[in-house]
Amino acid sequence: MKILHLVFHPDLNASRVNNTWKKQLEQSGKVATSRDMYLEYPDFKIDIEKEQALLLSHDRIVIQFPIYWWSMTPLLKKWLDDVLQYQFAYGSKGDKLKGKDLQIICSAGGQAKNYNGFHMFATVPEVLKPFQLTANLAKMNYSQPLYMFNADACGEDEVVKYGQKWVEVIDDPRRADGLEYANAKIHEELIDVYAQLGL
Ligand SMILES: Cc1cc2nc3c(=O)[nH]c(=O)nc-3n(C[C@H](O)[C@H](O)[C@H](O)COP(=O)(O)O)c2cc1C
């Protein structure tokens, strides 16, 4: 499986979380191509042909970013608008991304207890709904998003621990099917629980 890793952080050098994760994923050797997209396009002038060619030459597209204002960072929005064109990503002949996997990785400054889907807060999968809908339109496999909360205040070890988790699962072929993956994980966790109970 050939993995394309696109990181959309406005200033990766000033980033703690996303920079650490990018390095961990790069160093894992599991990612074929890893790119700092703001470094690539500081003027927001996206090379559409190049981006489309990269999408075509990889199987799993991993998009990583910090959540800003319950949304994606601006270059990522521009990248979606520019690159996922009619008759490329959608339309009568627009099936070029069909069957590829879309994996989102993101960090949120808010705390888990607040991301409860109630009052002022949505859940992270709700915030990421546009990506799920985009994957649906492009006939891509939308994988369960990977994310962490409390990204500004948590300790360095926590950031690294999450990065290790991402490295562990990033090339898991089962993630192509979100439901199958969730079922398999629940099954594994139940086996653990039963083992702990001595059953
Ligand atoms: C402009 C801006 C908007 C933000 N909006 C949100 C938000 O809506 N929800 C949230 O949980 N965190 C928000 N944050 C916190 C970021 O998600 C957090 O700083 C980031 O995930 C940390 O990652 P980094 O160390 O890679 O920069 C915001 C941060 C900035 C700078």
Task: List strands and helices in order, with pairings.
Elements (H helix, E strand, L loop, with lengths): L2 E5 L9 H11 L5 E4 H4 L7 H9 L3 E7 L7 H10 L17 E7 L16 H4 L1 H9 L3 E2 L3 E3 L7 H14 L8 H19 L3
Parallel strand pairs: 1-2, 1-3, 3-4, 4-5, 4-6
The structure holds flavin mononucleotide.
Labels describing this entry:
single chain; 199 residues; alpha/beta; Rossmann fold; 6-stranded parallel sheet; 14% strand; binds flavin mononucleotide; KefG/KefF; Flavoprotein-like_sf; oxidoreductase; NAD(P)H-dependent oxidoreductase
Explain what you see.
By secondary structure, the protein is α/β, with parallel strands linked by helices. It has a single domain, classed as 3-Layer(aba) Sandwich (Rossmann fold). 40% of the residues lie in helices and 14% in strands. It contains 8 helices and 6 strands. Strands 1, 2, 3, 4, 5 and 6 form a 6-stranded parallel beta sheet that branches. α1 packs across α7. The protein is globular and about 55 Å long. The mean pLDDT is 95. The site of flavin mononucleotide has 16 residues, from α1.
